[in-house]
Amino acid sequence: VVELHGAEAVGRCPFVTRNYATADHATGLQKLEAYRALVRVEIAERPTRAQPWILLGHQYASEGHHELALRCYVTACRLSDTAYLGQFEAGMLHARLAVSHLREALKRLPPMHGHRDNAELVVRSLQPLPDLPSPVEGSTPAPLPPEPDAAVRSR
pTM of the full predicted structure? Predict the structure, then answer.
């Protein structure tokens, strides 16, 4: 369910999302696209801020577009020398991708293979991480906005 509010009530973002999974699929996709468009406006207006890139990364990650999410997080890292969130989100996404790949490797590894112990150890240690979402049916990722060039970043 997505509750719509006046733009003034929530600042720049005119709605708040609540993940009750009760909105119909098409309406949900429309609202997610509207949110993504707002984040893109924020990036266009303030290209050197890391936070909108992180928000766009979250959007892509929640839709299962992990490579695009990672590119957003890495851009946020480049834009901020002191903030931790871009590094944290990139690291968490890498960890979740690692678990996903290692689980698949374990399905294929013979029981006595030398890599099995290491793969099982890493998967066990990262077990509490949630599984990566699959790409959302019907969602087509929009291309990333252009990254700010070095001249813009240095301002």
Answer: 0.70
